[in-house]
Structure formats: C-alpha cells, structure tokens
Amino acid sequence: MRVVFDTNVFISAFVFAGSSAETAIQGIVDESDVLVISKPIIEETLRVLAEKFDRNAEALSRTAIFLSEISTTVVPNERINVLSDEPDNRILECAVEGDADAIVTGDKAMLNLGTYESIKIISLRSYVSARAMQRE
Questions:
Q1: For 83, what's the count of Cα atoms within 13 Å in the CB-facing half-sphere?
Q2: Which of 99, 120, 88 is nearest to 34 (CA)?
Q3: Which tens digits make up the pLDDT trace of 14-61?
C-alpha cells in the first residue's frame, strides 16, 4: 500500500518513543508499505520540530535524511485548496501526485473528509491496527 503520513504522525513518532506513530514508521522501515512524501511535508515537519520541540540543526538534518531515505519523494504539480489549514492541502497534493492509497492522520478536518479522489483518509489507530492484522 502507498501511504502519506500527515505531519502530526511524524511529530509523534519523533517525539514520543514507543508511540503508535513510531510503530507506523517502523512498519515503513520494515518495508510493509511505501511511504510517499513531498518537500513541503518534510519542511513542515522540521519547522514544527524546531519551533515546538527545540530540535537543533543537527537533529533536523538527521530527520530530513531519514525521511528521505525511507520514502518516495514526489513533487506535486497540482495545487489543492480543499481544507482551511494550508499544510493539510499539501498532504492532499502529495497523496494525489504520489498515487497514494491512504493518508494517515490525526487531523479531524482531514478525517472528516473520509476520502479524497478515492484516497482513503484514516486515523493512525486504524492504520496500525490494519498493519497488525496483516502480520498475523
């Protein structure tokens, strides 16, 4: 499955050890799914880590490299303006350009959409549960 993780998933994975978000990232590392990402998603993740969690330049650099290594990077060609929060629109753009099957998020506005252009929008809990059932 091709998935796009919202910034909130990355933040949780990098800040809270042992979290469901970290489990989701580990699933990508173990190559069970293909993570699709874009430069705006990486930039937003790094901005939040720097501003809200005081990550230094070295930690941010390692994070950017890690995200690039575990994912397929796309360059969205189409601007989408469906949600009021601009970073959420960047997630949709990445998913469309990357031909994603699902977006994984904790964002209520995105979850309320349910789908966007046949791309499922699911919670982190749903994603991790589905991955666990596939392994069994």
A1: 19
A2: 99
A3: 999 999 999 999 989 987 799 999 999 999 999 999 999 999 999 999
What is the extent of the structural domain holding 99?
2-135
- Nearest to residue 125, comparing CAs of 104, 101, 103? 104
Least Cα distance to 123 among 132, 112, 111 occurs for: 111
Name the 3-class secondary structure at 92. Answer: helix
Copy the structure tokens of residue 10.
């990355």
- Could you tell me which residues are beta bridge partners of residue 73? 37
The CATH number covering residue 75 comes to 3.40.50.1010
What would the two tokens of residue 82 be?
A: 């469906």
DSSP notation for 38-65: EHHHHHHHHHHHHHHH---HHHHHHHHH
Q: In the chain, how many domains are there? A: 1
Helices (H), 6-123: 7-15, 20-29, 39-53, 57-70, 86-97, 108-113
Q: Quick check: 131 pLDDT over 90?
A: no
